[in-house]
Design a protein that fits this description.
470 residues, two-stranded antiparallel ribbon, 19 helices, 64% helix
C-alpha cells in the first residue's frame, strides 16, 4: 500500500515539470518531464477517478509535458504527421477503443462446477464494458500518444535527439548509485521511500545476490534501462568532441559493470550485440533496426504458423541456465493459452478489466499471467489495436531505412533507431513499452520527415519585430 508521500509526489510532479519548462531549453524540459517521472515517481500509486484514466507515473508526466509546452513554453503543438500511413495508425490507435467497448458489453459469468440446470450458482463475474467507459479508454489511448507527438514535434532536430541520448545516459548514471545500494542491501528503496514493495521479492533474488529495481515495476525494466543508457553513451562517444569522448566511453564501461550486477540475461545480450553495431556505419545500424522491427511486427503471424523455433530457443536457454529455460518455458506456455484466448475476439479484442486473461471457468481465478506487451495489446484490442500500436513504433524505422537511400542518417538518429528496435523485440517477452520509448519513436519519425520545430511566440517576435513608426 503506497504511503502518503507516494501520493504527494504524484501531486508535486506538475510543479517540478513547470520548473523544467521555465528554466530549461524546451527539448530538455520535455525529455526530463517524461523520463524523470518514469524513473522517480512511485509505481502502482494512482488517483483512480471515475470515467477518466488513472492518474499515475505515466499519465501525469505526459499531461504535464503537453500542458506546459502550450501554456509555459507558448508553443503550438501539431498532432498530424505528414505521412499518411502514420495518420491512419494514429486514428486506429485511439479509435479502436470504440469497437472494442461496443463488442464487449456482455459480462463474463463464472458458475460453480456443481451447478445443474435449472439451478445455477454464480461464483463471480467480470462486468461488460459500458458505453460510458468509452471516454475513459479513448482518453487513455490519447494520453499514451502524447510523448510520441511531442517527440515528433520538438525532438527531431540534432539538438533534440542529443538531449534524448544525453538524458538516458545521465539518468542511467544517477540511477546506478541507487541500483548499487540495492545490490548490496537488497531492493528496499521503494519500500523506504514509498512504503511498499512493488513486486515479488523472491524474483529479485538470483545467483546468490539481489537484482535491483529502485522505483521501476521490475528488475528487468531497470536492466533494460541500463542497457539503453550504455547504448546512449556509446552513441554520444562516437559523435562528441575528443574532450568528451573519453568520459562517455568511461560511463559506458561503468554502466556495463552495473548491468552485469543486475543479473538479467536478455539486456546483457542486447548490449553485447548492439554496442559493436554502434561502432559500424549508420546505414548498417538502420538496416539491423528495421530487421528487428519486422520480426516484432510479424511475430503473432509467425507464432500462428509455428515459424518461431521455440525448441531451439529453449535449448539455448537450457545450455546457459536450467532456471532461465524453465522461466522461458513458462512464458511460452502462458503465451499459447493467451493467444488462443485472443483469437476468440481477434479483431477488436476483449477490452480491459482482465477480460483478456485465461481464467478457471468455475472459480474465475486467473490461470495465466501475460508477460509480453504484444500479447497484452493483442488480447485487449485485437489485431487492429496490435497493428496500430506496433505500426506506430515500427513505421519510423521503415521511413528511416527508406531515407538512407538518399541521405546517410546521423549517428544520433541511428542510435535511437536501434534503441527503439530492440525495445520492439523485448516487447515480445516483456511489457516493456515506456513513455520514453514513445518519445524516441516520435523523434525518429520527425527526423524522417525533416521536421523543424515551430518557434515560440517570443522567438517569433524576436525574429519579426514590429515596425517602429518614426
Amino acid at each position: 500500500m503506497p504511503n502518503a508521500f507516494a501520493y504527494l509526489m504524484l501531486m508535486v510532479w506538475p510543479v517540478v515539470c513547470m520548473a523544467f519548462f521555465r528554466r530549461l531549453p524546451l527539448e530538455r524540459a520535455i525529455v526530463w518531464s517524461v523520463l524523470g517521472g518514469y524513473l522517480l515517481l512511485p509505481p502502482q500509486a494512482t488517483f483512480d477517478l471515475p470515467l477518466v484514466p488513472d492518474f499515475n507515473k505515466t499519465t501525469i508526466p505526459n499531461l504535464c509535458a503537453l500542458a506546459f509546452c502550450i501554456f509555459v513554453a507558448k508553443r503550438r503543438v501539431p498532432i498530424w504527421p505528414a505521412n499518411k500511413v502514420v495518420r491512419v495508425l494514429l486514428v486506429l490507435f485511439v479509435g479502436v477503443a470504440i469497437p472494442t467497448v461496443l463488442t464487449n458489453s456482455d459480462p463474463i459469468v463464472f458458475r460453480s462446477m456443481f451447478s445443474t440446470w435449472p439451478i445455477s450458482f454464480t461464483v463471480g463475474e467480470l462486468p461488460g464494458l459500458r458505453a460510458i467507459d468509452m471516454f475513459s479508454v479513448l482518453s487513455r489511448q490519447a494520453i499514451t500518444l502524447i510523448p510520441f507527438i511531442l517527440g515528433w514535434a520538438f525532438l527531431s532536430s540534432r539538438a533534440g535527439m542529443r538531449e534524448l541520448l544525453l538524458a538516458l545516459a545521465v539518468g542511467g548514471l544517477i540511477y546506478s548509485v541507487l541500483a548499487l545500494i540495492e545490490v548490496r542491501l537488497s531492493p528496499q528503496i521503494n519500500t523506504w521511500v514509498y512504503g511498499f514493495f512493488q513486486h515479488n521479492f523472491l524474483q529479485m533474488m538470483r545467483e546468490g545476490g539481489f537484482r535491483p529495481l529502485v522505483f521501476l515495476p521490475h528488475a528487468l525494466w531497470l536492466a533494460f534501462f541500463f542497457m539503453t543508457a550504455i547504448l546512449s553513451c556509446v552513441a554520444l562517444a562516437r559523435s562528441s568532441d575528443p574532450g568528451l569522448r573519453a568520459r562517455f566511453w568511461a560511463a559506458a564501461v561503468y554502466l556495463g559493470f552495473v548491468l552485469v550486477l543486475c543479473k538479467s540475461l536478455a539486456p546483457m545480450l542486447y548490449a553485447l550485440t548492439l554496442v559493436p553495431v554502434l561502432l559500424g556505419s549508420t546505414r548498417l545500424q538502420v538496416r539491423i533496426a528495421l530487421g528487428f522491427a519486422a520480426v516484432a511486427v510479424l511475430y503473432p503471424l509467425l507464432r500462428d504458423y509455428n515459424l518461431v523455433p521455440l525448441d531451439r530457443i529453449l535449448g539455448w536457454a537450457e545450455a546457459y541456465s536450467p532456471e532461465r529455460a524453465q522461466s522461458l518455458q513458462y512464458r511460452f506456455d502462458n503465451e499459447e493459452q493467451l493467444l488462443a484466448r485472443a483469437h476468440e475476439k481477434w479483431l477488436f479484442g476483449w477490452g480491459g478489466w482482465g477480460r483478456n486473461l485465461v481464467r478457471d471457468v468455475y472459480s474465475g481465478d486467473i490461470v495465466t499471467i501475460p508477460d509480453g506487451e504484444w500479447i497484452i495489446v493483442f488480447g485487449s484490442f485485437g489485431m487492429v489495436g496490435y497493428l496500430s500500436n506496433m505500426g506506430l513504433l515500427a513505421m519510423p524505422l521503415l521511413l528511416l531505412w527508406r531515407r538512407t537511400g538518399k541521405k546517410e542518417p546521423t549517428r544520433h538518429a541511428a542510435a535511437l533507431a536501434l534503441i527503439l528496435a530492440i525495445t520492439l523485440v523485448d516487447m515480445l517477452i516483456n511489457a516493456i513499452l515506456t513513455p520514453y520509448t514513445w518519445l524516441i519513436a516520435g523523434a525518429v519519425l520527425g527526423y524522417c520527415e525533416e521536421r523543424e520545430a515551430e518557434p515560440s511566440r517570443k522567438q517569433a517576435a524576436e525574429k519579426c519585430p514590429r515596425p517602429v513608426l518614426s
